[in-house]
Amino acid sequence: MARFELKLPKMGESVAEATITSWLKEVGDTIELDEAVVEIATDKVDSEVPSEVEGVLVEILFEKDAVVSVGQTLAIIEIEGDDTSSEKVTISDNSNTLEVPNVNIQAIEESVALANQVKETPILKTSDAGKFYSPLVRNIAQTEGISQDELASIVGSGKEGRVTKEDILNYVQNKEEVKETVVQNKATVQVENKFQINDQQSNAKVAPIVANRSDEVIEISRMGKLVAKHMVNSIQTSAHVQSFIEIDVTNIVKWRNKVKDAFLKREGEKLTFTPILMQAVAQTIKKYPLINISVKDDTIIKKKNINLGMAAALPDGNLIVPVIRNADQLNLVGITKAVNDLATRARNNALKPDEIQDGTYTVTNVGSFGSITGTPIINQPQVAILALGAIRKMPAVIETPEGDFIGIRQKMMVSHSYDHRVVNGALGGMFIKTFKDILEAWDVNQDF
Predict the structure, then answer these.
(1) How many other C-beta atoms are found inside a 10 Å radius of the C-beta of residue 142?
(2) Do 249 and 391 contact (CB within 8 A), yes or no?
(3) Considering the chain, what is the average pLDDT of its residues?
(4) Which CATH architecture has domain 239-440?
(5) Domain ranges across the chain
(6) At what angle do helices 250-267 and 273-287 cross, to 10 degrees?
(7) Tens of pLDDT along 80-115?
(8) How far apart are CA 240 and CA 419, in angstroms?
(9) Which of left, alpha, beta for 67 (phi over 0: left; psi -120 to 50: alpha)?
(10) pTM reported for the whole predicted model
(11) CA-CA distance, 356 to 379, in Å (whole number)?
């Protein structure tokens, strides 16, 4: 029997490690080809690691919540056949030469180092209550000078209340924030005393938030925490400004209603408004390439490729932004296939980490939730984001050679949020004006 090493695969250039969130198989289980063995999470997306072989899982090398680097072996799968991939290691002592199979010396060295690390910190292995702490958690605790009693006081969010990497890092961060707040408060009190400010004002405290018995306490998901951090960072980084415009999409609505059945029959894809609008966005960016940029220190990086991010809903209600690469090079059929594929796999949590990276401009369809418009937050490190509102029937003044009259038109509001540090109002406004012109000039007689 041969032994196959299941390794953490490469998941994009910027992803160097992942956290194991759960094992889908246990030791002794039979594994089929391409069957998912373990679930992992990066700072970008949750994913699964499938098996490249058929066999039996004989060893799991990392526990849940462990952080693993790309290329490290996660588990050992026993497969049928000779271990032809194993090399021989020759050991010589001048008198006898012994050949032994190579059993992954690097893995053994890592295991020995890990064992030595555990041996050096026995006091952090378990608490008085018998809690188990992973080597990673123990190492962080030792580095940050967290005592046994402090570690035991941390409320774990892992299985059976186990303290995870995120739990202890949040504890360390909060601890530092408390220290900083105490220092700031002391400085404030000194200044207030100097200028004889009322002591009652200087000692005022904000009332803590307390959950009553009737209240439901809901743990924020890992993805929710990442999204929240990303959004706060964006607000603190970019000077957000919005421009709004109303677009008459009557011709597009008529054209779609006329061709959608034939489109589905010929291409096997449902034609929604999203790919039509995404195609128009790509065309507009080609006219205004200074929207397709990012900022680094005091320089602007002008992106060569137009990679459109498309905000999509996850099953838990959070949003994720898969990317349509080189969208300006795709026709309507190509963009439709890309939009439908990414949206479906987003709903099924089947996106790969590299499919949500390298976006240069983002579009979010707030109209899919019934919203007329919105003021979206820029997806860093981009400098702009477009919000598409709901399409509604509206009374409108229609200009004709015979005169003006009131008619029913299909209209939508579009909101453009942009970073005023590098995108001024003229560019931000001209961008959506051109986007409007492209959509309103839609030919109802064109093919697809």
Answers:
(1) 15
(2) yes
(3) 82
(4) 2-Layer Sandwich (3.30)
(5) 2-85, 121-206, 239-440
(6) 110
(7) 876 544 444 343 444 444 444 444 545 545 554 554
(8) 5
(9) beta
(10) 0.62
(11) 12
